[in-house]
Amino acid sequence: MTAPAGDLSWADRDDWQEAWQPLADQIGTDFADGAVIKAADAVEPGAVRRYLEPLEFDCPLHHDAEVARAHGYAGIVAPYSGLATWTSAALWSPGEAPVYTSAERDAQPQKTSVPFHHVGPATNGGFATDVEYEFAAPVLVGDHLEIRGCRLLSVTPKETKVGRGAFTTWEFLVLNQRRELVCTQRRTLYRYVARRTVRP
Predict the structure, then answer these.
(1) Does the pLDDT at position 1 exceed 60?
(2) Side-chain half-sphere CA neighbours of 164 within 13 A
(3) 153-195 confidence digits (pLDDT tens)
(4) Domain architecture of the chain: domains with CATH
(5) What is each CA distance from 24 to 5, 13, 54, 56, 156, in whole angstroms?
(6) Bridge partners for 185 per DSSP
(7) Rounded Cα–Cα distance for residues 163 and 178 (Å)
(8) CB atoms within 10 A of CB 108
(9) CA distance 3 to 141
């Protein structure tokens, strides 16, 4: 995950947690500023089949349109557990610069599919810790999803084995091409300065 460029020395200070206070003061703010992230592709029948195949998940709602309609759906239902797949934006396209530009051990991509949450102190590492989905409607084959909003819900500074940083929780809305709410997603990330950067 790309982090704000800048000085990492905040992580060396005894009061390092204070570096996160300006971000914590913005809890409730939507950092998306109206930006919309569209999925790279509409949900395709082949993508649903390939998603189900290794799971050997034989639910006819996911492959038989007649059965899906008989149960009140407008068409084949994409598995809810595949939401990250159905909402993924393209990270790279032909003709673009590489996403990974460094061969260093802790190299981070130069861009991510959800760029809004790179605010706060400079960091050199990060990863997702949990995700929560609250569905309002099914995802159907043919739907083209998009993510709107990026509201900050919480900031919790913490030192872990990997370094000093903070857990930040964000809320996104997932809509279909009809602008209907499909899902409210909450995602927690841990952004940090790697321990060996802080101390030998």
Answers:
(1) no
(2) 19
(3) 999 999 999 999 999 999 999 999 999 999 999 999 999 999 8
(4) 9-43+80-198 (3.10.129), 44-77 (no CATH)
(5) 19, 19, 42, 44, 8
(6) 133, 172
(7) 43
(8) 18
(9) 35
